[in-house]
Amino acid sequence: MREIYLDNSATTRCFPETAELMNKLYLEEYGNPSSMHHKGVEAERRLTEASAILAGILKVRPANLIYTSCGTESDNLAIIGAAMAMRRSGRHLITTVIEHPAVLETMRFLEEQGFEVTYLPVDSEGQVSPQAVEAAVREDTILVSVMHTNNEIGTVQPIEEIGAAIKRRNPRTLFHVDAVQGFGKARILPKKARIDLLSVSGHKIHAAKGVGFLYIGDGCRIRPILFGGGQQKGMRSGTQNTAGIAGMALSARILYDNLEQDNDRLCRLRDLFISLVTQIPDAFINGMGAARRAPHIISLTVPGVRAEVLLHALEDKGVYVSSGSACASNRPHLSGTLSAIGLKGDQLDNTIRISLSVMNTEEDVREAAAAIAELVPFLRRYTRH
Ligand code: PLP
After folding, report:
1. Is the pTM of this model over 0.70?
2. Which of 267, 293, 11 is nearest to 154 (CA)?
3. Torsion from C-alpha of 72, 354, 149, 327, nearest 10 degrees
4. Which residues pair with 214 in a beta bridge?
5. Residues assigned a catalytic role
6. Nearest protein Cα to ligand 1, atom 13
7. What does the pLDDT average to over 338-352?
8. Crossing angle of helices 101-112 and 71-86, rounded to 10°
9. CA-nearest residue, atom 9 of ligand 1
10. Residues 6+ apart with CB under 8 A from 146
11. What does the pLDDT look like over 36-79, one tens digit per residue?
12. Which atom of ligand 1 approaches the CA of 99 most closely?
């Protein structure tokens, strides 16, 4: 049976070039970058090359990048690190109700430590308004965290306007952006958008699991959250994942070298899929209009069909999608993002996420849409009373 993998926001398949490079590093260039001998120098050189590539994409200095184990660690380091470094100047943080648990749970942890957090609402398309952010920033606000692209519905936030609004109100307030779903799909320039901290994860961009990075802007002081051998100038102790880092940089370069063409193609595939599945009676798409939504994430509500049932029925046909957010799927709660944009009752449980990547084809999209259209009338007979 042909596999049609449409769960790329959960994770992606590694690019073959990246897997090949990582294999070489595991088998041949396996030195510890902190070692003083040739093997160490060779590994260190791989890190230097990776930082040059990633910094070039973001138009920042290589020294601004700290490697981590994943997007979750990058988010934790940014938020806890900033809170610990700045707690004498303030104890207030701002975020939105549709952030990933890597941000929301970190905020809850800080609330337990005596910090105050404001959770901003979003509109029916999942957008947070820059005016609302500006109004919420206070003299004692140390950090604002807003995601670039929402992982469940694909809403892209007006990051540049939000950055400008924050700094207008309080230039000392740090701006953190979780770009785990946006990096590799959008050109993100931290300096232009006034971003101080930016989180990225390797496995969402056709690189390995277990690697990510955090951009830390010049003049932005944060405290480390891991202590030990003092690697990465003491900002993140622990031996660097050299193969993972080199692979992440290569995957990023491949994506950014072809970004505009790939995004055009992805948008066409996304819009084709949407036009096909919205022919199903009562089915609708959540999030923003086509012109502004992310090219790769589609949230589809099919009233009368439980997401989990549809997901497994599709799996039987070789089509992989997810229900709600796959990243939080080990927790059986319903999506906070979907209720934040106004979905109610059964609609929450009747929503699947389809997420594309550059590896998908028009055939994938047509076959997946046909499989959904074929299954829905059959499944509705069993779900509707
Ligand atoms: N932030 C967002 C928006 C995500 O979508 C995810 C994972 O899906 C994460 C953070 C966590 O990234 P990681 O799986 O690398 O820890």
Report:
1. yes
2. 293
3. -20
4. 66, 199
5. 327
6. 71
7. 93
8. 30
9. 71
10. 95, 96, 99, 128, 133, 157, 159, 162, 175, 176, 177, 178
11. 999 999 999 999 999 999 999 999 999 999 999 999 999 999 99
12. 3
Domain residue spans of the chain? 4-12+259-384, 16-256
- Whether 4-12+259-384 and 16-256 share one fold: the answer is no
d(CA 200, CA 198): 7
Q: Which fold has domain 16-256?
A: Aspartate Aminotransferase; domain 2 (3.40.640)
CB 176 within 8 A of CB 82: yes
Query: Does the structural domain 4-12+259-384 have CATH classification 3.20.20.105?
Result: no
Q: Are 1 and 11 in contact (CB under 8 A)?
A: no
Distance 153 CA to ligand 1 centre (A): 14
Distance 129 CA to ligand 1 centre (A): 23
User: From ligand 1's centre to the CA of 201, what distance in Å?
Assistant: 7
Give kind and range of the element (H or E) at residue 301: strand 297-301
- Coil, helix or strand for 117? strand
Structure token digits, residue 32: 């510890």
Beta-carbon contacts of residue 9 (< 8 Å; ≥ 6 apart): 151, 181, 204, 296, 297, 322, 326, 353, 355
pLDDT tens track for 231-286: 999 999 999 999 999 999 999 999 999 999 999 999 999 999 999 999 999 999 99
- Ligand 1 atom 5 nearest Cα: 151
Q: Which residues contact 172 (CB under 8 A, 6 or more apart)?
A: 89, 142
- Dist. CA 56–CA 109, nearest whole Å: 34
Helix (H) / strand (E) element for 168: namely: helix 159-169
Q: Which of 67, 151, 357 to mutate to test the pocket of ligand 1 (most atoms within 8 A of CB)?
A: 151
Place of tokens 């086509």: 290
